[in-house]
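Reminder to self: tokens first, then the designed residues, so the page reads top to bottom the way the pipeline ran.
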């Protein structure tokens, strides 16, 4: 999944490597929280739109490996864990916008709630629109109300989960392997939706750190 990427982040990689090399969970946790907080604080103080664009698109050029190494082990209901999920959701869409938009549109067909409204999706939601949506959600995390950005991401994941589940049902009889893959995909998006929603509630109470 990440073979084509090279080293990301201009935050102190030497510090990451020293701490991660020591395998001290407390140090790894501290670095995860400190770097996530520093990134968010810098973004909120940034007035240059081009700099914000580069922060949002950072993993496009530099990859997601080192971010994953530091943030992925963090609790889902934490600042680094939440930022990791926001970047990962965006990454999943950027990898294959056509497929992602197809799953999302299928989700819209079966969604009985207002997930697409909360997510802020425009219709029709094609490849360009779904990439723009995930960029907008991540930008909102940096420049707006963090809890709202998390709720939008949670709603997006919920619609994607429904779409993948519906596609699994469509393929169950004729393409069992594809149905299995889509079922797993649905479960992953559902888990992300639940985790992002829980983090949004904490952020709303200023309890997400």
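Designed residues (209 positions):
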């Amino acid at each position: 999944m990440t073979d084509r990427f090279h080293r990301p982040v201009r935050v102190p990689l030497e510090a990451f490597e020293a701490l991660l090399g020591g395998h001290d969970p407390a140090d790894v946790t501290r670095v995860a929280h400190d770097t996530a907080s520093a990134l968010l604080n810098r973004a909120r103080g940034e007035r240059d739109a081009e700099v914000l664009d580069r922060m949002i698109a950072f993993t496009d050029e530099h990859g997601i490996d080192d971010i994953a190494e530091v943030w992925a082990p963090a609790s889902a209901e934490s600042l680094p864990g939440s930022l990791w999920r926001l970047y990962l959701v965006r990454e999943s869409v950027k990898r294959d916008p056509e497929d992602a938009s197809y799953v999302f549109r299928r989700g819209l067909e079966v969604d009985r709630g207002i997930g697409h409204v909360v997510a802020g999706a425009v219709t029709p939601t094609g490849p360009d629109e779904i990439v723009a949506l995930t960029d907008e959600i991540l930008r909102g995390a940096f420049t707006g109300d963090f809890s709202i950005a998390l709720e939008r991401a949670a709603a997006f994941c919920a619609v994607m989960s429904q779409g993948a589940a519906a596609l699994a049902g469509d393929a169950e009889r004729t393409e069992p392997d594809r149905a299995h893959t889509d079922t797993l995909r649905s479960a992953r998006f559902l888990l992300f939706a639940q985790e992002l929603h829980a983090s949004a509630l904490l952020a709303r109470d200023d309890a997400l750190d």
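The chain has one domain: 13-204.
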